[in-house]
Fold these 4 entries.
Entry 1:
Amino acid sequence: MLYWLSSLSEGGDLFNLFRYITFRAGAAFFTALIFGFIFGPPLINYLRRTQKKGQPIRDDGPETHLIKAGTPTMGGLLILSALFVSTLLWARLDNGYVWIVLTVTAGYAVIGFADDYSKISKMNTKGVPGRVRIALGLALAFVASAWAMWLHPAGLSGQLALPVFKDTLINLGVFFIPFGMLVIVGAANAVNLTDGLDGLAIMPVMIAAGTLGVIAYTVGRADFTEYLGVYHVPGSGEILIFVAALIGGGLGFLWYNAPPAAVFMGDTGSLALGGALGAIAVVTKHEIVLAVVGGLFVVEALSVIIQVLYFKRTGKRVFLMAPIHHHFEKLGWKEPQIVIRFWIIALVLALIGLATLKLR
């Protein structure tokens, strides 16, 4: 919204700063961060008053989680409010890619909110039926993938770009849409499964988002893409504004979510942020790199899939409990140990993913 101030510039003045994505990204970060600090306490107090008993705790979960009973959920509203306000203020609103990511984020937030509300109102951990959530998520991902395919330049539309291999594209044609749907839905649910310990999901989300933001800015600049040998996606650099706002809002939330958490993110936040990561990957043509950058989320999701399939076939379990962070809890690891070690893994994977820009 504030980008229009650049039209008042004659060059070399204050208004000229609004032309630069990097300036607006920095402003978006601080706007979201300050928003989180200001509105965090009143939102948490409101959630405590309205939810009374807080988020329902699984009876079959780790015993240490029972002390968290009464902690309110839906804290993702704080992240998302900061994210949307900041992005709408500082991003170019004539950029279609920004609207794709915002639409996916908002849509999955609604699905997550409905799931959280169902759990709180019924005081159980079931929420909205899984098939309904997946169906709604797929419909939203279909719209986003088709929209991205329509906006991509002719040479990239419907193509799958491979990391590391220079000038290598796989023409998926219309099948790019179901592929994009798989990426977005998979990312949303993988982050949702990771959100099981205080601060465990939000930091890896910010790390992955920051990496994808650098990638979006890079592939949005013709000079950078020519030097690095990656494909140019005109206009994708504006996604950096969204990412900066996400990181600012995420840090504001982490201030209150750090152990012991004053509020949980809930499905409202985890589904929305995971969907956002998937949408950014689809927009920037870095879907495969997302599997590396977000490798922690992939492992969490795979641990659940392996556990379920193996148990159905043999009646036995591979892990003491899934997702895998609960397995380490059962082994006796302390929650802060698991969280910080998983953060380190997420950072290492993000650096590996970022290296694919240069490794050709």
Entry 2:
Amino acid sequence: MPIKRISPDINGDGRRVGVVVSRFNAAIGDALLAGALRGLADAGVADRDITVVTVPGALETPLALQRLAQTGGFDALVALGAVVRGETYHFETVANESAAGVSSVQLEFGIPVGNGILTTDTDEQARVRADVKGFEAARAALELANLLDAIDEG
């Protein structure tokens, strides 16, 4: 019997996507959002099928993702924000807890979440990565939504 392979698919036609953007480090958030929206548009997601919400920071992102997931109105979600290392332990707490929360939402609800929350040492590193990271997070969420459908069908 041949091996069954499911090919990657980033087609976003008909997909409903929720995007949560952290307002902390707003310029980085704006660049992440621009990249994500470009990634969604390039994949065929219609503007009318995209919902963007903002939250104060990365620690608030998982709760907004959870509520979006609870509505059942989305095929995929995207988390966007930037956590830049400072002089205190706060960076590790925010980076670790926001990542754990994002993962928890996707596992609890079975909905893909593209994690575009940057964790960098400097503002400059975040600026350089923002557009591409937003694009990649959006595309990862779409690819996983399509993969889950293909698994369910097969």
Entry 3:
Amino acid sequence: MLLMPRFLLPDVFHLTDDFLQSHQIRGIIFDIDNTLVGFRTPEPTPEVRALLERLRSGGIQIAFVSNNNKIRVSRFAKGLDIPAYHRACKPLGVVLKRVQRRFDLPAGQIALVGDQIYTDVLGGNRAGMITILVDPIDCKETALFKFKRRMEMPVIQRKKREDAQK
């Protein structure tokens, strides 16, 4: 099912070395807003910086792929030496495939980590990547986002039931 994430995690800090190794993940594409930081947080927090450094020092390739605008994405990525793509039009896969070519990895060794099913999970699944859905950081969202979150709940509940049966 294209809307079903492969994994549910509470946050990006659960991306441990053991988790990545056991699933043969060698590249990670991160959404930014509500995945790494709240949508009102303009720059990476010290904790996010430490996470990114830990991942990179472990040999994991990283990119940021966001549907947000250039100013937002550039400001977030400034000084991190991590490729960043704005207006990615997720769930369309054009930018995701570009990142895959840049990583020079099979899609099955790349994880797309995000907080939304209809953009991040759908886009990653369509591209053949490992999809990881994290809980959104900031719950103060617009009416449209609240509606989309309600639409995602049946998928999330189904995934939780499936995981509980394993």
Entry 4:
Amino acid sequence: MHRQPALAALLRVSLDSFVAIGMLLASILAFDEPFEGSYLILALLVFSLTFPGSTPKGTSIRGLAGDVLANWCVIVALLLILGWATRTLGHFDQRVVLAWMLATPVALFTAHLVMPVVLRRLLAAEGMERIAVIAGGGDLGCRLAERIRATPFLGIRFAGYFDDRGHDRVRSVGPGESLGRLEELAGYAKTHRVDLIYITLPMASQPRILRLLDELRDTTASIYFTPDIFLFDLIQARMDAIGGIPVVAICETPFYGVNSLIKRASDLVLASVILATISPLMLAIAIGIKLTSPGPVLFKQRRYGLDGREIIVYKFRSMAVLEDGNVIKQATRNDPRVTPFGAFLRRYSLDELPQFINVLQGRMSVVGPRPHAVAHNELYRKLIKGYMIRHKVKPGITGWAQVNGLRGETDDLDKMKARIEHDLEYLRNWSLRLDLQIVLKTVFVVLRSQNAY
């Protein structure tokens, strides 16, 4: 991993906390409020929720604004829920809180927009900026250069490419970015300031790579090899070692080590709190099912769980039939199998509530790829590349696909492909903050009741 300059690392982890707490202090001063114990506790809570900060993923202005706003909404929602639960909302001046909540996302957006420019100039002025060149001007080299430019907190300035191919074959090399042929790289590194050299040549070019490494031994630059295997769609790729032999994880669950403990602890806390809150509602639903149609209250269906193992998933029965065979037809609009009371349950996803029991059992998570019937899995695993990768984690009651409009019936292959793409995106980018965002977004999605029948 790269060592970031101390200044850049400090700014990266503290920027969100500094801005959020700074805006809180500014709001308190603006309304001439005393900085009492309640505001100190609020500042400490904000610090715990924003430190260490993370760089927004959005590269465009619109994407940056969306990331900042989404993250801030999650933080505000958590603080409001905590304040309501502890009955401490009345200790704060409403004008201060409202001004702070509205002004902070604007300040965060401005800070993240301006910071890359300021940081780059500051590092250059202090002589802490590192110069990087790339050996290989293909697709991987181009993507690496773009990442370097888009990540100012690394403190790296990209100088250009070295490649033996002509400009007509290396379309990624822009004007002024071609520094010469590979054989000139060692000489350039000796006569110019080059701190980092990235080799992005194809692994099939082993003789050229070995020759280049031999030539670079007489330089002081740090050398990194980025194999073209990373052009593939990797899921939670990471380096490891077995008896000193380095291995690269091509497809791995994001829940290993401490992450697995965090995920399980959050599942237990969320499921316990939610079940305790909704138990009267679940009892009312059970009575309603019994009074409106014959049959059991709960419907048990086989689904694929972690690592593709079969599990039993609970749902409130919403149909007049109990289908769990080799061929299962998905529910469609005006499906005659759905009972009138079941249609109401499905519209607001109330039929899924017993799955919080599955979470406590350890079969499911609150957030994760939605489980499909075994019959549907067997069908789509043959039609969609990478379909079964979604089973590297426990299935969830809600997921990234569901809060992005991919809820309900998947009546064509393209819709299912889109759902799988979102599931895999969740695996790549998992964090506890993302889980909390999905939980909060689910509430609004369910209230809109789109595509559920």
